[in-house]
Amino acid sequence: MTRNQTQPVSLEEITALAKRRGFVYQTGEIYGGLANSYDYGPLGTELLLTIKNLWWDYFIRRRDDMLGLDSQIMLHPQTWVASGHVDSFTDPLVEDLVTHKRYRADLLIEDYFKKNPQEQLVIADLSTKELADLIDKYQIKSPDGNPLSKAQDFNILFETAIGAVSDKKSRVYLRGETAQGIFTNFKQILNSNRQKLPFGVGQIGKSFRNEITTGQFVFRTLEFEQAEIEYFFDPEQNNWQDLFRDWQNYVWDFVTKVLGIDENNLRWRRHTDQERSHYSQETSDLEYHYPFGWKELCGIAYRTDYDLKKHQEFSQQSLEYTDPQTGKKFLPHVIEPAMGISRIFLMLLCDAYQKDPDRERLLLALKTNLAPFQLAVFPLLKNKQELVDKARDVYQQLRQKYQVAWDDRGNIGKRYLAQDEIGTPFCLTIDFTTLENDTVTIRHRDSAQQERLAISELDNYLASMLA
Ligand code: GAP
Question: Which of 5, 10, 301, 399 is spaced 20 to 30 Å from 195 by Cα?
Answer without folding.
Answer: 301
